[in-house]
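Hi R.,

As promised on Friday, here is the backbone we talked about, encoded as structure tokens. Could you run it through your design pipeline when you get a chance and send me back a sequence?
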């Protein structure tokens, strides 16, 4: 319908083809630059909506990162960086060190989500690549802290569960199973029930003195299950299997139920750093759950009777010994270990003898497994200057103490003097020795405890 003109005004018919920004037109002329103003308004609204968008998870740790550090009097950031590192270290070391009953022989099945949702890029470069990177670091650290344990790898993709690696106590064999990325390419949807059933079946023959654990790295929001997953959950509770889930997307009720009913832990990763923290928190052996004894002597008590298990300490063969075939790989080698029961040749320890089934361990492995049962007491931070010992050198490394850039009061367990005192021998240690003693040595060099 064409516009109808009058002497003083002009009417414009309502038409979808006309711009909505034109409100009033007088004497054939627009009242200002309406279209230009509307375009600017749209641009501003578009810019505001873009600024209000939530960043990726990996961008959260870099938002206004310059506000977390402050310059010192000389204008340097070195002191602030050292103070942040010391706070993070001490925060981990201030955990309670009371004696807790734990299982030193662990059997773990690591379940990896290989569904198409792992190709999302909210974690750099993708969830899949980051999961493989942290899984390799987790396996290496797990075997270092639990030398008597064994790990198996299970993947879930396309609605089925795949056995990627058999249960093994050799970290090199376990790492080899996830070293080739093209064999683990994500596809389809995951199936929690199939993965848990496969993991449960691989641990059905294990003895009662060992722990049974399942760690699931789950990045999807759906699961394709052939049956009732709650029946699988009841079977895991009956078999005393502990399930822990590290989610990369969001919390799902079934994942929470798997963890709560089996005594495991559940966490949702906020970014790549939080993902690594949640995964590495599962490295120490979990506390053993109390089980009532059977009727008879000691009935009614919460602690079960101790079970004795047989272990063998092998004889190590030098490189100059005569070559012989090993029973584990059938390779002709000179060096190796001899089983004390059947004299079979083994490549590495700890392992189970393939001939007689005896568990073969070395004394350092057995001693290193006990540090979880008897942890080193946390060192107290020296705060009062009047109580500082006259010694200016660290008891562990003999290096001179350097005053921390922190304030004169204790904050997050950080000493302003850079000194940390053992509660038993009363010796002072620096920050590096404090971390090294509690993370690596697990024995105080001052008192030997």
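Update: got your reply. Pasting your designed sequence below so it's all in one thread:
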């Amino acid at each position: 319908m064409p516009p109808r003109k009058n002497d003083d005004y002009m009417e414009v018919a309502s038409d979808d083809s006309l711009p909505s920004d034109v409100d009033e037109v007088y004497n054939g002329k627009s009242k200002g630059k309406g279209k230009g103003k509307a375009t600017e308004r749209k641009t501003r609204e578009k810019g505001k909506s873009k600024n209000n968008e939530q960043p990726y998870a990996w961008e959260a740790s870099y938002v206004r990162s310059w506000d977390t550090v402050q310059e010192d009097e000389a204008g340097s950031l070195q002191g602030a960086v050292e103070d942040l590192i010391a706070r993070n270290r001490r925060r981990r070391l201030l955990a309670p060190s009371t004696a807790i009953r734990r299982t030193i022989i662990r059997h773990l099945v690591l379940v990896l989500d290989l569904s198409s949702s792992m190709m999302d890029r909210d974690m750099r470069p993708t969830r899949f690549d980051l999961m493989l990177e942290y899984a390799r670091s987790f396996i290496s650290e797990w075997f270092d802290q639990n030398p008597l344990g064994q790990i198996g790898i299970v993947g879930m993709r396309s609605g089925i569960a795949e056995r990627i690696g058999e249960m093994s106590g050799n970290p090199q064999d376990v790492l080899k199973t996830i070293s080739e990325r093209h064999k683990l390419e994500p596809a389809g949807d995951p199936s929690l029930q199939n993965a848990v059933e496969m993991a449960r079946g691989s641990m059905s023959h294990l003895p009662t003195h060992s722990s049974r654990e399942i760690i699931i790295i789950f990045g999807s929001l759906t699961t394709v299950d052939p049956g009732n997953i709650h029946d699988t959950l009841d079977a895991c509770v009956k078999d005393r299997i502990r399930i822990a889930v590290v989610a990369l997307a969001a919390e799902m009720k079934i994942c929470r139920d798997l963890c709560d009913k089996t005594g495991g832990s559940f966490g949702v990763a906020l970014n790549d750093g939080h993902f690594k923290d949640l995964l590495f928190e599962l490295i120490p052996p979990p506390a053993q759950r109390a089980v009532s004894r059977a009727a008879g002597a000691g009935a009614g008590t919460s602690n079960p009777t101790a079970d004795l298990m047989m272990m063998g300490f092998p004889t190590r063969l030098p490189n100059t010994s005569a070559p012989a075939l090993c029973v584990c790989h059938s390779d002709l080698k000179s060096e190796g270990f001899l089983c004390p029961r059947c004299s079979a040749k083994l490549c590495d320890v700890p392992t189970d003898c393939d001939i007689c089934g005896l568990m073969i361990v070395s004394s350092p492995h057995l001693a290193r497994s006990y540090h979880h049962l008897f942890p080193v007491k946390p060192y107290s931070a020296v705060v009062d200057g009047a109580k500082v010992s006259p010694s200016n050198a660290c008891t562990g490394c003999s290096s001179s103490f350097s005053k921390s850039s922190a304030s004169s009061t204790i904050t997050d367990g950080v000493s302003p003097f850079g000194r940390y005192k053992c509660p038993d021998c009363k010796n002072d240690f620096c920050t590096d020795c404090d971390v090294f003693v509690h993370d690596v040595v697990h024995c105080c060099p001052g008192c030997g405890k």
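One thing I noticed while checking it: Residues 377-449 form a domain with the Herpes Virus-1 fold (CATH 3.30.40.10).

Thanks again,
M.
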